[in-house]
Structure prediction request, 322 residues.
Amino acid sequence: MGQTNALLTPVDRVEVTILLDNSIDVFLASTDEVRRAQLTTERPWGERPALIAEHGFAVMVTAHADGQSRRLLFDAGMTTHGLMHNMDMLEVRPEDFECLVLSHGHVDHTQGLVGLLERLGEWRIPVYLHPDAFRKRRTDLPDGSVRHMPSMDRGWLEQRGIQFIEGRGPTPLLGGLVLASGEIERTSGFERGFPPHVAEVDGEWQPDPQIHDDQALVVDVRGKGLVVVTGCCHAGAVNTLRHAQKLTGVRTIHALLGGLHLTGSLFEPIIPQTVAELKAIGPKCLMAGHCTGWRAIHALANEMPEAYVPTSVGTTLVVEAA
Prediction:
């Protein structure tokens, strides 16, 4: 199998399963490429086990190539036990993950790691992340209020077997079948980060609007193009897709899945530009969730009806080689 470049090898199939997200809809229908979870049980309504949604994000990525399958976890959700609950419901075993990738250090993507370790006792697995993900952070809001964000307890996690692998650049994973983007280049001109965001650096609170630890996952499906998975997409959806194209040399974006952070008064003004640029890029599948926001979701669904797919916890996107 030939390589796209030194960073990424095309795969025969990739499956992206949403383990945690902000919404769930048990009545959504499946298609050949988008498969909705079906929990089989003989128990009566009201007593059946169920998936849960929360303001957090986590996905399982399974890459298939040359007759082998390899699996990783991307992000871990907002609450301590939400991820583990849904993994139990979907019969996903933590032992099957070769590694964990954190999109960035915000708590809605990291806290579920604590629940996994409480269940397992220890988990000897590499965790890939940007060094800024350990920063203490807060948001300074226009009304003068300050909201501090919980940060990861690195010592507690390392005592339980976690091996952190820090890097700012792109990182091949699963033998080159998946690529963590590393820091994402800002090129769009209108995606300018999160102005109220502040971080403690060398003992002082400093502006941190770019959130440089934000990164995405990229998979190249042979004959189809790139599947890009984002956490919060603080770098911006357009910047993220352009960066994936630049890293891999592949222009075709087959699918974009994850949070696009277009909610709230700071980000809603760039919805029209974002939608216009995404239409120009032309992903065949667009499954925006988590922090995308209802206004942006409505705009994407209206402007890109053939590509837009509603997100729901338990959904698996399956992309096969052409």
